[in-house]
Design brief:
Blueprint: E1 2-8, E2 11-16, E3 28-37, H1 39-45, E4 62-69, E5 81-84, E6 87-88, H2 94-97, E7 116-117, E8 134-137, E9 145-146, H3 153-158, H4 162-172, E10 180-184, H5 188-199, E11 204-209, H6 212-221, E12 225-228, H7 235-242, E13 248-253, H8 263-271, H9 280-288, E14 289-297, H10 310-316, E15 319-322, H11 327-339, E16 349-354, H12 358-366, E17 374-378
Parallel strand pairs: 10-11, 10-13, 11-12, 13-14, 14-15, 16-17
Antiparallel strand pairs: 1-2, 3-4, 3-8, 3-17, 4-5, 5-9, 6-7
The structure holds nicotinamide-adenine-dinucleotide and zinc ion (2 copies).
Length: about 375
């Protein structure tokens, strides 16, 4: 089969690989219909995630048709068209019982923090991902979810990560009616966080980025105010100025470890790797939120040291909330929102690229060429069931 293949930082290609096989009775094999490239894949692509092994296949956002099931699979049958949450989770452990599917204790032997994730290095379990024609889906009775008959496949594929992650970012912000919400990052996750902030009752939503075409897009798509960080000398002062000098009620980090905007953070976090990524947006969020406010973090950071102004957070009495998204928990509500027309996920897709051109797709998305917001890969033989 054709699959994306990681060769090293900034080097990926499409290549023929053996098709995956059932390895456990509760596995399924899925023929991929669509898969996306995510901002999280860029951390892998840029060589920032430890134990990203050459020869592995990325891709944790995919839909597909079940082509084979293991003998113990009860909830799926061959031919089902499913969306597969990026988390691999058992459904029964201490954490899954509390709907913390992103923290499943049984699917990632390498870590005590994050659970298993498709195509996301051996630090999240070493599973191959869905930027391929076929993918092995473990715990097949638990994660995959039937795509409703009336749902567009491109809406479905955005339900595997970007939309639920943005939604959970807003939810963890504990937004109350009338709150002023600042979202850092106008990538897919930030765009959906901004859109979701209104659903939770925000009275004002402000999105910060430095890529002008993304700011222009989010301004329209999420009916929000925008700030280009390039125009701002001091972010905390700027946000305070916009919010009667008290600060925002809620700040949401949808950027993570590759943030631009601070030379010191960029050098120490991204080039010298003295900390696990640039903590620029954490500084801005903690310093821009009002006393007693909430900072919600979904932008990804490595597990080790980051120079975070925790003293400011303490003295301001902030609530800090963060996690990998627990995708499955949000699906019923988000499917309802899509069916009612309150959110149109696929409008953020700007690029539909054949899997064989995966190298170009990564370059376009990584370098923000051609006004790219979200790129979807289409494998050969990607027919969607009627
Ligand atoms: N927690 C989770 O479950 C989860 C799931 C999906 C993605 N993520 C993470 O969320 C983040 C965003 O994902 P995405 O797909 O939208 O990625 P993306 O790379 O497309 O978007 C990130 C955006 O942040 C902007 N940016 C850079 N520095 C900034 C700064 N200082 N202030 C404001 N904006 C800045 C970039 O220009 C870009 O538009 C990534 O870190 C990704 O790994 C987390
Ligand atoms: Zn993702
Ligand atoms: Zn579990």
């Amino acid at each position: 089969m054709l699959a994306m293949d990681y060769r090293g930082p900034y080097r990926v290609r499409a290549r023929q690989k053996p098709e995956p096989e059932i390895e456990h009775p509760n596995d399924a094999i899925v023929r991929v219909t669509r898969s996306c490239i995510c901002g999280s894949d860029l951390h892998l692509y840029h060589g920032l995630v430890p134990d990203t092994r050459v020869g592995t296949t990325f891709g944790h956002e995919f839909t597909g048709v079940v082509s084979e099931i293991g003998p113990s699979v009860r909830n799926l049958k061959v031919g089902d068209h499913v969306l597969v949450p990026f988390n691999i989770f058992c459904g029964t452990c201490f954490f899954c019982q509390r709907e913390l599917y992103g923290n499943c204790h049984n699917t990632n032997p390498e870590a005590t923090a994050a659970g298993g994730i498709y195509g996301y290095s051996h630090t999240t379990g070493g599973y191959d991902g869905g930027q391929a024609e076929y993918v092995r889906v473990p715990m097949a009775d638990i994660g995959p979810t039937l795509i409703p008959g009336d749902m567009h496949v491109e809406d479905a594929v955005l339900l595997t990560d970007a939309l639920p992650t943005g939604y959970q970012a807003a939810e963890m912000g504990e937004i109350e009616k009338g709150d002023v919400v600042v979202v850092f990052g106008a990538g897919p996750v930030g765009i959906f966080a901004a859109r979701s902030a209104w659903l939770f009752g925000a009275s004002r939503v402000i999105v910060v980025d430095h890529v002008e075409y993304r700011l222009e897009f989010v301004r329209q798509y999420a009916a929000c105010e925008v700030v280009n960080l390039k125009d701002v000398a001091d972010m905390a002062i700027h946000i305070k100025k916009m919010t009667d000098w008290l600060g925002a009620d809620v700040c949401i980090d949808c950027v993570g470890c590759e943030a631009a905007g601070s030379l010191a953070q960029t050098i120490s976090g991204r080039y010298l790797k003295l900390q696990a990524g640039a903590a620029t947006v954490l500084h801005w969020a903690i310093n821009s939120v009002r006393k007693g406010g909430t900072v919600s973090i979904v932008g990804v950071y490595g597990p080790t040291f980051n120079a975070v102004p925790i003293g400011n957070a303490l003295n301001k009495g902030l609530t800090l909330r963060m996690n990998q998204a627990s995708v499955k928990r949000h699906l019923p509500r988000l499917i309802e929102h899509i069916q009612a027309g309150r959110i149109e996920p696929r409008k953020i897709i700007t690029h539909r690229i054949p899997l064989e051109d995966v190298a170009d797709a990564y370059q376009i998305f990584s370098s923000k060429l051609d006004n790219c917001i979200k790129a979807v890969l289409i494998p050969p033989n990607a027919g969607v069931p009627a």
